Structures are given as structure tokens and as C-alpha cells.
From TrEMBL:
PANTHER family for this protein: DISEASE RESISTANCE PROTEIN CHL1, LEUCINE-RICH REPEAT-CONTAINING PROTEIN
Gene3D superfamilies: Helical domain of apoptotic protease-activating factors, P-loop containing nucleotide triphosphate hydrolases, Ribonuclease Inhibitor, Toll/interleukin-1 receptor homology (TIR) domain
Domain of life of the source: Eukaryota
EC number: 3.2.2.6
Name by which UniProt lists this protein: ADP-ribosyl cyclase/cyclic ADP-ribose hydrolase
The organism's taxonomic lineage, starting at the top: Eukaryota, Viridiplantae, Streptophyta, Embryophyta, Tracheophyta
Length: 993
């Protein structure tokens, strides 16, 4: 067991834990068509590498006249805004709306705004000349009925353009970006130190937590921060995160793990870890794949990861379970209310956060209520009473202090009823809330009740107990079991979040100010209220209300609802006949297994970006789905009755993700897919399709394509390329044909450029066993990579998994079992090693395979191979893994290892394969990996390719490398006796071997 140390926060050191005001350090405002894929992308990457948490609207394709609420929220929660003025910036009303919002935040929220003039004259922006002048001529014509908004844009443009910023002029962009990031870091460091001034004594506590991290040590450490809710765990972790982040290669602060995992699952959290730590967007299809990616991609990277508010062991298992998932010197901080989780994980230390003592609490209360270090004399006794009441809970002090300052003012003097909880403004302790609602002693003074229990408790609240709470705005209840239903809820409510709501329905009355209803896991709920009585409602979440048969038809014409989630309502049948919801953004019906028909989408519903219908009983989609112009993600997984899609669905310009997997009756995609250029992921796994339209080749942004389990493809007599036309898919990186049992991969595979599909999965396609075309395809790819590497292009790799039981002869070093070890003379390695090709035969005995990974060993030292893992899942026969990895970035590691050789000048080289099982330790077994092979690729191997006519054309600047015209026997031994350069070495090798 890992050594355990517990650091208890000193009760004598003053400390406060104010929640930081900002979610993001920087918000980037830019014109996508001008700078998205060049300057803005480079600046964004540089900011992330520096650990500056930056918001960039990656998905934005300007549409309409108004920016989205999410974007407005991101602006409001950013400390800095960088506005990149480019040639066409002012032509976008979206950009101008964004800019106007930024200016408003600059004036009212203390945001700092910094302009960048990218290939534009600052005076053109300030005086609105050139392209800026032309843009406003067009705006004035378009908005001649609303000139006020145009003037607002003009004013915002002038105001920001007059601020101090950066002008590119003719400077090199890389140096320019470096200067921007450096200056911004200094500004952030200064503002961060200013923020710490408001956190009483935080530095002393942070230093103690920092000492537990021991960042100078090269071991991997996991540290827990433990304490009750509201005690300040998150803020303490964030402060330390900022203090030490510069010492790591990658940093990620994962906030609200408990809440976000409940809402969205763990896959988005895994994706965020990969995005922030590796600076790349990765499509992860399930949590097991996410675990596989995390522990294989981060194992050689020194990272800092904070998991905030963890409450389930499964969260740790899927996000940060083992120390060997992360590189040497990495640190993981876990904040939690559950100490048992930390003991189970065997963390290296626990920092226990206690409540504030009276002096600390009084100081914090005074800062919040009076903006001074000490309360005014007239309020001293009252403040001491408040401090005594809250018993050192910082969050409670903050709420009461803010309430004292902003709302109640001097009137709180008259509420010296510390022994009567019914006369307080906010209640959050079970004893107080239980007392008020059991004795029916509530008053109109109560504005908020928040009761989130870790363990369920029984309560006997009076049915009429809420009737006196005339000013109740916030009601959050979780893990309370009631013996009686509430007969009344006050119409003053703004938010009701009641998990396990105990009534059949919400009382039928008007709630004029109610904005959010969340009644998750409420089996007694059988009807909803009339939605005309909640006119400003924005969020409706009735997830896992398993006995709810329908929703009131008035929901279909609600004008303010943004989010509707009925996930897991498995008895839901009745929905309105149509939706005319102009504000709706997210509609989730996942797991509503009795929903057979989706409402028609009428009117303006262009804000809908997510439509999740997975697990429903629908047989088709309404043609009116074409009205969802903003739709980005469509989930139809496991819709067992779905037969087809409307032909218009792929006309949606913003559609990115389409999942039709598991729709066993789905027989064909629409013939015309060419208008869906934005689609990046298409999954039709487990469907009955027998044909793929040729228009799929026009999906130029498609990255992931899966036909896993589409056995109908194998029944056709057409060739592979007639079945699945890939030409034109220039962004494709993952093609999954597992369990399709295709008949052949013909020799015309060389029509596809070898680097177009670097991940090709063909598990259980038994008729393709040891297909020579695929092996040639793999060798061609490796050969091409040798030439491309001369251009220093990183991340060249390929993975193929196919049925088979023999290692191809091309792999010059082979062995039985999971390891191959060879001795090579140092002269044999003096040429640059440019690539590593490996092969393994994996047996079918263990049907629960989840993945295979491998390590390259030089003289006993592990060399980290980029992306060394492949998910192989369940296989029904022996399979061959073929893998090529470039060595770009690993030259230093090779040179360090190769300086060691024995007295005869020989080095020990090897490859070692391991099998991953979910929930088990990784282990190696000769029974799992039957055989393996290795081939090192050198610069000299290029000489053994016969160039094509196009390749020899001196005017060609193409990076494409032709398929080698020599067949395998002529291409096999380019690093042995055919090379006179190594003749003596090869003779020595033959003696050794």
C-alpha cells in the first residue's frame, strides 16, 4: 500500500475559500474564415501549452444575427478577451454581436480586452475604412429598420480598436505569438496574485498542500483533498493548480466531476482530459476506449490533473486509476467529500480541510458583507452571531455575507433569530430544514433551501409545510425520502431540483418566475404541469422518471425552453404532435423505449444543436428535421425499428456527428450525402446496410467511419471499393470494418493514398485472412512514411487488425510468444532509425480482449512509442496486428540508449506486447500473443523503392509516395545481406543468431 500522510489544515491559520469568478482565462474572438486554421489555431495552441485556459468557439459557423447563450456565458466567465481584427472581421454580424457583448462585460464585469491587428491597419479599424467601411455599408442596408444595433457595433469596434494591444505588421507570426503569450502570462500572474488578496490566508494552506505534492520528485503522486461540502476544497485545489502548473508538460482541471458525470457520463470527461493534456480532439465511443486512450497516451507525459468533486469509485477507475497511466513526475489531485474513496485508491497523502475558526470566519464575513477587514461597530455583534451559527463553513459565510451586503442590508439587524431557522433567509443543514418543514415553522424570510445528502434519510414533512414560504426562490433536495407528498409549492420559485420527487405531479398553479425544473429519478411522477403556467421556463429535466407516460402538449409551443431531457423515461409514449420551440437547443429522449413517433419540427428551430433519440422505438424521422438548421449531433443508436433517414438530413450544414449504430433494420443511407461536408463522425455499425452511396466520398471532413458488424456488405458480389468508396475522404483517419466479413481487399487498394486510413479495423472478417493486398498496403504505407519523414511531418502511424495466424516474411525479426529480442551491431544502427514496424498474432482463446499495446526496448530501456495501443475487443479467431510508428521526436531517446553496447559492439533490441483487460492488471502471456515480429526502417530503405513516373517528375511537389513496384521477396531484406554497407555486420549477426 502506498505510504499515507494526512495533513490537517491548521485552525490557527486564517483562510477563506472564495470561488473564483472566472471559468476561462481568455476568450478568443475571431473571424473564422480569415484566421481559424492559421493564426488563431497557432495562438490557441500556444496559450494551451502555457497552461492558459482559453475558450475558442471551435464549432462556430456564423449563423443568424444572435450569438448563442453558451457563447454569451463563456464571454461573461472569461477574465481576458483577445479580439483578432482581420480583414473580414466586421463583415460578420456574429463577430460584431460578440464584440458588443465583450464591451459590455468590459464595463460591468471588469474584463480586460486586448486587440490584435492581424494584417489590417489599426486606423482602418478605428476609423472604419477599407473593408470595415464596406462591411458597415452592407449592415446599414440590411438593418435599416434597426440602425441602433449598427451604431452599437460601430461604437464597440471603435472602443476596442483604441485599446492597447498588438499589431502584427510584417513580423514573423511565431515570434509575434510568442510575445503575446508571454505578455498575457505576466498579466494573468498579476491578476491571479490580486485574486489571492481576497482569499484570506489561502497561501499558507496552499503551501501545505503543495508540500504534499512534492513536485520536484520524479515519482507519480496522487493527493486527496478531503472535507465537507462548501468547505473550500475546489478553491484550494485551483489555487495550488495555478501555483504549480508551469512545472508540467500538460495541465487539466476537471471541475464538477460528480455533476458532469451524472449529466453527461464519463466519456466527455475523458475527452476533455485528452484535449487539455495532449492538445488534440479525440473521438471516444465508450468509457473502456477512453481508459485505453488515457493510459496509453499519457504514460510518458508529465501532467498535472485535478479531479474536482469526485463521489464514485467508478469515476476514479475511468479517469485516473493507476499511477502508471501517467508519466514520471505527474501529479493527480482529487477533491472529495468521501474519505473512503481516497483510502481505496491508496493515495499518497490526504489534505484534510477543516472549517474556519471564529476569527477567520469573521474576517471572511466582513469582506463579503462590508468590503472591509473587520465589521463596522454597529454590526459586530450580529456578525459574531452569524459566525457562531455557520460553524466555520466558508460557503455559508459567503452566501450570508453576500446576502447581507446585496439584499438585506441593515434589515438583517432585525433577524437576530438564530434559534429559529424558519426566520433565516437560507437553509442547508438537514436538522434546520427538517425542523422547519416538520413543525411547519417556515416564514417568508426563507429564500433558499439546499439539501444534498450523501446518504438517504427518511423525513416526515407536513404536506402543507411549503405554503408559508412565500419568497422561496431556490429549492434543491436530494436523497430525502418523504412519507407525505407536498401539497403546495410557492409560486416564487426560480429553480426546483428535487431528485426522487415524491408526488404524482407538480401542484397545478402558475409559476411565473420558474426557470429550471429537475425532477430526476422520480418514479411516482406520472404527469407534468401545464407549461403555459411556467412561461419563462428554460430547462426541463425529468430523467429516469420511469412511470411518466407523457408530457403536457403545451410543451410543444413553449417559447423559452432551451433544454428538454426525458432520458430514461421508459414508459413515455405521448408527445405533442409538433414542436414549435424557437429557443430549444437540446432535446434528449435517450432510452425512451416506447416512443414511436417524433413530433414535427415547425417554425424557426435553428437553435437546436443536439438531438438524442437513441434507444427509442421510432421507425423514421419526420421530414421536417430539415428545419433544424443548427443541428450538430444526431444520436439514433439502438433504434431497433428505424428503417431509413430522410434524404434532406444531410443537407444540414452544421451536422458533425451521426450515430445510427445498432439500428438493426436500417438498410440504406440517403443517396445524396454530398451536402454534409461538416460531418466528422459517421457510425452505421450493426445496421442492415448492403450498399454505401458513392456520394460518401464527398464528405471531405469525415474523420471516423464505422461499418462494424454490417454483415450485409459481405453478401454483395461487388468489390470493396464499389461497396465502400473512400476516394475523396481526405480527412479519414479511422475506418472500422470489424465483423463485416468482407470477401476481399483487392489489389486495387493502392488507389487510396497510404496515409488516408491509418487506422483500419477488420476483426472477424475471416474471408480476408492474411490478405496479401492488405499486407502490401501496410508495407506501402511504411515506405511512404520514410520519405514523408524527411519533411519532418510528425504523427505518421498506421494500425491494421485482420484475421490471420502468420507473421509476414517482410518482418525480418520474428519470435514465438509476446517478445522478440535481437542483437544488432552498433554499426547496423548508426543510420537514422526512421520508423518501427511491428506485428503480432493474437489468439482467440480469451474472448474478453480489450486491447493490445507494446513497448520498444533498447538495452533494457523503454522507448515510448507514440500511440502504442489498439482496441481489439472480442475476436473469434487468431488475428494479426500490423503497426507502423514514426520515430519523430524520439531521436534523443534512441541516441541515449544506443550508446550502450557490449565488448563486441552489440546492442540489445526488442519489442514486448501486453494484453489489456478491463478492470484487471495488464499482463503478458505467451498464450495470448502467439508470435510477434519487428522491423526497423532506416533512411537507406528509401533507395529500394522504384519511383513511378510521377515520382521522378522534378516539378512535382506532391508528398505522395507510390506503392513499391517490387513484390515482397525483393523488398524484404533491405537491412541485411543485400546492403553492402552492412555486409560485415550481417556476417557477425548470423554467427550470433
Amino acid at each position: 500500500m502506498a505510504s499515507m500522510s494526512i495533513e490537517r489544515a491548521s485552525s490557527s491559520s486564517p483562510s477563506s475559500f472564495d470561488t473564483p469568478r472566472w471559468t476561462y482565462d481568455v476568450f478568443l474572438s475571431f473571424r473564422g474564415e480569415d484566421t481559424r486554421n492559421n493564426f488563431t489555431d497557432h495562438l490557441f495552441d500556444a496559450l494551451k501549452r502555457k497552461g492558459i485556459f482559453t475558450f475558442r468557439d471551435d464549432e462556430k459557423l456564423e449563423r443568424g444575427k444572435s450569438i448563442s447563450p453558451e457563447l454569451e456565458k463563456a464571454i461573461e466567465e472569461s477574465r481576458f478577451a483577445i479580439v483578432i481584427f482581420s480583414r473580414n472581421y466586421a463583415s460578420s454580424t456574429w463577430c460584431l454581436e460578440e464584440l458588443a457583448k465583450i464591451v459590455r462585460c468590459m464595463k460591468v464585469k471588469d474584463m480586460t480586452v486586448l486587440p490584435i491587428f492581424y494584417n489590417v491597419d489599426p486606423s482602418d479599424v478605428r476609423k472604419q475604412k477599407g473593408t470595415f467601411a464596406q462591411a458597415f455599408v452592407e449592415h446599414e442596408e440590411r438593418f435599416k429598420e434597426n440602425m441602433k444595433i449598427v451604431q452599437t457595433w460601430r461604437d464597440a469596434l471603435i472602443e476596442v480598436a483604441n485599446l492597447s494591444g498588438w499589431d502584427l505588421k510584417d513580423r514573423p507570426e511565431s515570434k509575434f505569438i510568442q510575445n503575446i503569450v508571454g505578455e498575457l502570462w505576466l498579466k494573468l500572474s498579476y491578476t491571479f496574485s490580486e485574486d489571492l488578496d481576497d482569499l484570506v490566508g489561502i497561501i499558507s494552506r496552499a503551501e501545505k498542500l503543495k508540500s504534499l505534492l512534492a513536485t520536484r520528485s520524479n515519482d507519480v503522486r496522487i493527493i486527496g483533498v478531503w472535507g465537507m461540502g462548501g468547505i473550500g476544497k475546489t478553491t484550494l485545489a485551483r489555487v495550488v493548480f495555478h501555483m504549480v502548473s508551469r512545472e508540467f508538460e500538460g495541465c487539466c482541471f476537471l471541475t464538477n466531476v460528480r455533476e458532469n458525470s451524472e449529466k453527461y457520463g464519463l466519456v466527455p470527461l475523458q475527452q476533455r482530459i485528452i484535449l487539455q493534456l495532449l492538445n488534440e480532439s479525440t473521438s471516444i465511443h465508450d468509457v473502456d476506449e477512453g481508459v485505453f486512450v488515457i493510459k496509453n497516451r499519457l504514460r510518458y507525459k508529465r501532467i498535472l490533473l485535478v479531479l474536482d468533486d469526485v463521489n464514485q469509485l467508478d469515476q476514479l477507475k475511468r479517469l485516473a486509476w493507476k499511477r502508471d497511466w501517467f508519466g514520471s513526475g505527474s501529479r493527480v489531485i482529487i477533491t472529495t467529500r468521501d474519505k473512503h474513496l481516497l483510502h481505496t485508491l491508496e493515495v499518497d497523502g490526504i489534505y484534510e480541510v477543516d472549517g474556519l475558526n471564529d476569527d477567520e470566519a469573521l474576517h471572511l464575513l466582513s469582506l463579503k458583507a462590508f468590503k472591509k477587514d473587520q465589521p463596522p461597530t454597529d454590526y459586530l455583534e450580529l456578525s459574531k452571531d452569524v459566525v457562531h451559527y455557520v460553524k466555520g463553513l466558508p460557503l455559508a459565510i459567503e452566501i450570508l455575507g453576500s446576502n447581507l451586503f446585496e439584499e438585506m442590508g441593515k434589515n438583517i439587524v432585525h433577524q437576530e433569530c438564530l434559534e429559529e431557522p424558519g426566520k433565516r433567509s437560507r437553509l442547508w443543514l438537514f436538522e434546520d430544514i427538517n425542523n422547519v418543514l416538520t413543525e411547519n415553522t417556515g416564514t417568508k424570510a426563507i429564500q433558499g433551501m439546499v439539501l444534498e445528502l450523501l446518504e438517504p434519510k427518511e423525513a416526515y414533512w407536513r404536506p402543507e409545510s411549503f405554503s408559508k414560504l412565500h419568497h422561496l426562490k431556490l429549492l434543491i433536495i436530494d436523497n430525502v425520502h418523504l412519507s407525505h407528498d407536498p401539497k403546495h409549492l410557492p409560486n416564487s420559485l426560480r429553480i426546483i431540483d428535487w431528485s426522487g420527487y415524491p408526488s404524482k405531479s407538480i401542484p397545478s398553479k402558475s409559476f411565473e418566475r420558474l426557470k429550471s425544473i429537475r425532477l430526476r429519478k422520480s418514479p411516482k411522477l406520472v404527469e407534468t404541469l401545464d407549461f403555459t403556467k411556467v412561461p419563462v421556463l428554460e430547462k426541463l429535466v425529468l430523467e429516469d422518471c420511469i412511470n411518466l407516460p407523457g408530457v403536457h402538449p403545451s410543451i410543444g409551443v413553449h417559447k423559452k425552453l432551451k433544454v428538454v431531457s426525458l432520458k430514461g423515461c421508459k414508459n413515455l409514449k405521448s408527445l405533442p404532435s409538433k414542436f414549435e420551440m424557437e429557443s430549444l437547443e437540446i432535446l434528449i429522449l435517450s432510452g425512451c423505449s416506447k416512443v414511436k413517433k417524433i413530433p414535427e419540427f415547425r417554425g424557426s428551430m435553428e437553435r437546436v444543436c443536439k438531438l438524442y433519440l437513441d434507444g427509442t422505438a421510432i421507425s423514421n424521422l419526420p421530414v421536417s428535421i430539415k428545419n433544424l438548421n443548427g443541428l450538430a449531433s444526431l444520436k439514433l443508436k439502438d433504434c431497433k425499428n428505424l428503417v431509413c433517414l430522410p434524404s434532406t438530413i444531410f443537407n444540414l450544414k452544421l451536422l458533425k456527428d451521426v450515430d445510427i449504430s445498432g439500428c438493426s433494420k436500417f438498410e440504406s443511407l440517403p443517396e445524396n450525402l454530398g451536402n454534409a461536408e461538416s460531418v466528422e463522425e459517421l457510425d452505421v455499425s450493426g445496421t442492415a446496410i448492403r450498399h454505401v452511396p458513392s456520394s460518401i466520398g464527398r464528405l471531405k471532413n469525415l474523420k471516423g467511419l464505422s461499418f462494424r458488424g454490417c454483415k450485409g456488405l459481405s453478401s454483395s458480389n461487388k468489390s470493396w471499393y464499389e461497396l465502400i468508396p473512400l476516394l475523396g475522404l481526405c480527412s479519414l483517419t479511422r475506418l472500422n470494418l470489424r465483423d463485416c466479413n468482407l470477401k476481399e481487399i483487392p489489389n486495387d487498394i493502392d488507389l487510396v493514398r497510404p496515409n488516408d486510413v491509418p487506422w483500419l479495423f477488420l476483426q472477424n472478417c475471416f474471408k480476408l485472412s492474411e490478405n496479401q493486398g492488405l499486407i502490401d498496403y501496410f508495407i506501402a504505407f511504411a515506405s511512404k512514411c520514410l520519405r514523408i519523414k524527411l519533411l519532418r511531418i510528425p504523427d505518421l502511424e498506421m494500425r491494421i487488425v485482420i484475421p490471420g495466424s502468420e507473421i509476414p516474411e517482410w518482418f525480418s525479426h520474428q519470435s514465438m510468444g509476446p517478445e522478440v529480442n535481437i542483437k544488432l551491431h552498433y554499426s547496423h544502427l548508426c543510420n537514422e532509425v526512421m520508423g518501427i514496424a511491428v506485428c503480432a498474432v493474437v489468439c482467440s482463446d480469451a474472448t474478453s480482449h480489450k486491447g493490445i499495446k507494446w513497448n520498444f526496448i533498447v538495452n533494457g530501456n523503454e522507448i515510448p512509442i507514440p500511440k502504442p495501443g489498439v482496441d481489439i475487443a472480442t475476436i473469434a479467431s487468431d488475428h494479426i496486428l500490423l503497426s507502423y510508428s514514426s520515430t519523430i521526436g524520439l531521436e534523443e531517446e534512441f541516441s541515449k540508449s544506443l550508446v550502450e553496447y557490449d565488448a563486441n559492439g552489440f546492442c540489445q533490441i526488442g519489442i514486448r506486447f501486453e494484453i489489456d483487460y478491463p478492470g484487471k492488471e495488464t499482463f503478458r502471456s505467451s498464450e495470448e500473443v502467439k508470435k510477434c515480429g519487428l522491423r526497423l526502417l532506416y533512411k537507406k530503405d528509401i533507395e529500394y523503392l522504384i519511383p513511378t513516373d510521377s515520382d521522378s517528375d522534378s516539378d512535382s511537389d506532391s508528398n505522395d509516395v507510390p506503392i513499391p513496384r517490387r513484390r515482397l521477396p525483393e523488398f524484404d531484406y533491405s537491412d541485411s545481406e543485400e546492403s553492402s554497407e552492412y555486409k560485415d555486420c550481417d556476417e557477425e549477426l548470423s554467427d550470433v543468431q
